[in-house]
Amino acid sequence: MRIEQQQIVDYNISSSKDLLKQVDFLSNQLDKKGIHTKAIIRKLADFQVAIPSWALGAGGTRFGRFSYGGEPSSLEQKIDDIGLIHKLTQSAGAISLHIPWDIPKDYNAIKELANSHNIIFDAVNSNTFQDQPNAKESYKFGSLSNVSNAVREQAIEHNIDVINIGEKLGSKSITVWLADGSNFPGQHNFQLALQNTQESLQKIYKDLPEDWKLFIEYKPYEPNFYSTVIRDWGTSLMLAEGCGDKAYSLVDLGHHLPNTNIEQIVATLMMKGKLGGFHFNDSKYGDDDLTVGSIKPYALFLIFNELVYGMENNKNNPDLSWMIDASHNVKDPLEDLIQSLDAILIAYAQALLIDQKALRQAQQENDVTKCQEILQNTYRTDVRPLVKQARLLSGGVIDPINAYRKLDIRNQLIKERGTSSVATGL
Ligand code: LRH
Ligand code: MN
């Protein structure tokens, strides 16, 4: 299924007049504050977020999985689904593959298909948290940290294979997330596990192409529930520094213990020039992988405030990789991803409105109330017209969820694929 540009144009006709009024009204307000909406709209239009190949079907938990109908059962269909999201939003111009869940069979055909949807290949993800059929060694007790050299070597080989797959697709980065850890005190020698992990990552790093990046993703717990080898930003940063200049930390928003000040972690990693990218999602308790901005939208705004500051002031930090990492247990995966994209752009737009100079001044004067007022007034500004205008100018639709339903996309997909197709992934 594809959406024709004429369908987009026809859909926007009914709501573009109102939008123009809303944008004019907001622009006049912001102009008075010396804020130029054109530049902000440009930045929003240029902001592209990678969609995970493993989050296009119904997710699940150990307690159950409820399929969604019309799910993509091949990499080709997954790229087509991202093509649908990108056609509507013009902000999903990349796919992040998980290997071996999504190994291309015909590389040229897959690249052509992605190209036909204006989609590029972002970071590739290795998987040493599941055993593959006929694998010689098991990752039951870990992979890069395993006490067995044979297991570590198998895991290192897998990561190098993933880099080779990414190279054939034009990807420029690999994300390594390890489930490695322990469930009981005494099970692990913490230092040996960490040492093994550092040495294994260094061996993978040796095979990293010159223009590639290695992202080291941390997580405090799950699937291990007593210790995790790469448990927090500090460990990820230490391992990245132990590898070299092309290694960075990756922040998955769901990988923090409750009430962690994630925006301060972002500021710290950017100051060190070691923030590689994000896995956007939201959570109430653990790694819930919920829709971005659905639980803690103010926290997301504060994170983007640090990102805007960092992108302005930390020239030593490379351009960041933006990805979503979510799982959809009860919602239409495509609607969920579209909502997440909207929430990311809204938080970015709000952060771009912050008068950083006035905030610095108030901080310099320890005028705490004024600091709060600057942030909270900006957060309470309805920037949705700017996000919609950016989509409209990029050839997308003003209201993607509404358009998705009006174009009856899910039922079309069910007609094409049936109700029992199942997508690989989480
Ligand atoms: C681990 C994680 C990681 C992926 C996996 C699908 O929780 O966030 O990024 O490999 O989800
Ligand atoms: Mn993740």
How do the strands and helices of this protein lay out in sequence?
Elements: H1 5-32, H2 37-46, E1 50-52, E2 60-61, E3 64-65, H3 75-89, E4 94-96, H4 107-116, E5 120-121, E6 124-125, H5 149-169, E7 173-177, E8 181-182, H6 190-206, E9 213-217, E10 227-228, H7 233-243, E11 247-252, H8 262-271, E12 275-280, H9 297-313, E13 321-324, H10 333-353, H11 356-364, H12 368-379, H13 384-393, H14 400-406, H15 409-417
Parallel strand pairs: 1-4, 4-5, 6-7, 7-9, 9-11, 11-12, 12-13
Antiparallel strand pairs: 2-3, 8-10
Helix pairs in contact: 1-13, 2-13, 3-10, 5-6, 8-9, 9-10, 11-12
Bound molecules: 6-deoxy-beta-L-fructofuranose and manganese (II) ion.
Descriptive account of the structure:
The structure is a single chain. The protein is of the alpha/beta class and 426 residues long. It is 49% helix and 10% strand. It contains 15 helices and 13 strands. The protein has helices at residues 5-32, 37-46, 75-89, 107-116, 149-169, 190-206, 233-243, 262-271, 297-313, 333-353, 356-364, 368-379, 384-393, 400-406, 409-417, and strands spanning 50-52, 60-61, 64-65, 94-96, 120-121, 124-125, 173-177, 181-182, 213-217, 227-228, 247-252, 275-280, 321-324. It has a six-stranded parallel β-sheet with strand order 6-7-9-11-12-13. Strands 1-4-5 form a three-stranded parallel β-sheet, covered by helices on one side. The protein has a two-stranded antiparallel sheet with strand order 2-3. Helix 8 links the parallel strand 11 and strand 12. The two termini are 24 Å apart.
